[in-house]
Amino acid sequence: MPEIILITSFKGGVGKSTAAANIASKLAKAGKKTLLCDLDFDLGTLDLITGCEDRMLFDICDAVYGRRDVDDCAVKFPSNPNLSLLGAPFRMTDTVEPDEFAKRLKDISAGYDYVILDTPGADSVTLAAARLCADLAIVVSTHNPASIRGAEKTAEKLRETGSECRLLINCFDASSVSGDKRAGMLSMIDATKTPLLGVIPYDRTLMFAQEKGVLAEGDAFISSKAFDNTVQRLLCKESGRRPVPILYGISGVKRKKVLTK
Question: What per-residue string of b and e applies to 129-138 under the rule 16 or more CB within 10 Å gives b?
Fold first, then answer.
C-alpha cells in the first residue's frame, strides 16, 4: 500500500495546493510512483497549477465511485512519468461519506508509492475522509499571525483524532524575521506545537510561473531546493539516511537569526 500524505490547513491562501503539487512532483522525480489528488471540491486548482486543465476528461470522483478506471481518470505527465493527477470535479454531484470515500480512495491508490491529498481551507467532509486514510498530515502555514493560528487549530484537531502531524512553513521571508516583523521558525513551532518538516522560502518566480502551469524545478526557483529538502526528509524513513538540515543549500539566509526569533 502507498504512503498517503494529507496537505492541509483550516486557513485558506497559505499555499497548500502549491505545496502539494511540488511535493508530489519532487517525489516523482525521486523515482516514486506518485498520485496527486485534488480534494477541494468547491474550488480545486491543481489542474491549473500543474498545467493540465485541458487534458482532464474525468475526475477523482469518477475513479473513487467506480464510474471509470483510475488509469482512465488520472492525467499523466510526459515530462514526469511517475506523476499522475486526479483532479477535482467541476461540479460536485456525489455525496461524500467519509468512511466510504476513504476506503474507496485507498483501494484505487494501490500500485502507487505515494499519494498526496490536497484539501480545502476548512474543516470539511473531504478533510475528514482524507484524515481517515492518511498516514501523515502536513500542516501548511505562512508566518502571518492569522495563518499561524489556523495551523495551530488544524494540528490540534488532527491530533485529537490520532493523526501524525508535521509543520511546513511556506512563503518564508527571512528579511521580515530579521527585522522583527514576522515570527521565526522556533516561534511557529512553539505556537503550533508541531514538529517542523520543511521551510519553503518566498519565491516570486514560482508565484507567477504556477499561473502558467509551471512547477518549481531548476535554479530559477529559490523554492526548488527547499521542496527537494522536504521530500528527502519524507524519504528518510524508508531510506534510513539522516535528514538534510533546514535551509540546506539555500543561500542568503542567516540561519541563526531566523531560527531564534
Answer: bbbbbbebbb
Element (H, E) at 116: strand 114-118
Identify the CATH number of the domain in which residue 185 sits: 3.40.50.300
> CA-to-CA distance for 29 and 122, rounded, in angstroms?
30
For residues 86 and 228, what is the distance between their CA atoms, to the nearest angstrom? 23
How does DSSP assign 34-100, residue by residue? EEEEE--SSS--HHHHTT-GGG-SS-HHHHHTTSS-HHHHSEE-TTSTTEEEEPPPSS--SPP-HHH
Helix (H, G, I), strand (E, B) or coil at 221: coil
Residue owning grid cell 468512511: 99
pTM exceeding the 0.90 threshold for the entire prediction: yes
Q: How many residues does the chain have?
A: 261
User: Tens digit of pLDDT for each residue in 51-80?
Assistant: 998 999 999 999 999 999 999 999 999 889
Long-range contacts of 76-84, Cβ-Cβ distance < 8 Å, separation of 24 or more: 77/28, 77/50, 77/52, 80/25, 80/28, 80/29, 81/28, 82/27, 82/28, 82/29, 82/31, 82/32, 82/33, 82/34, 83/24, 83/25, 83/28, 83/34, 83/36, 84/34, 84/35, 84/36, 84/112
Domain that holds residue 211: 3-260
Total domain count, the chain: 1
**Are the C-beta atoms of 169 and 177 separated by less than 8 Å?**
no
Instruction: Name beta bridge partners: 34.
Output: 83, 114
For residue 242, the tally of other CB atoms under 10 A from its CB is 9
φ, ψ of residue 201 to 5 degrees: the values are -70, 155
- Grid cell of 121 as nine digits: 481551507
Q: Do the Cβ atoms of 37 and 118 come closer than 8 Å? A: yes
Q: pLDDT, tens digit, for every residue of 1-16?
A: 899 999 999 998 899 9
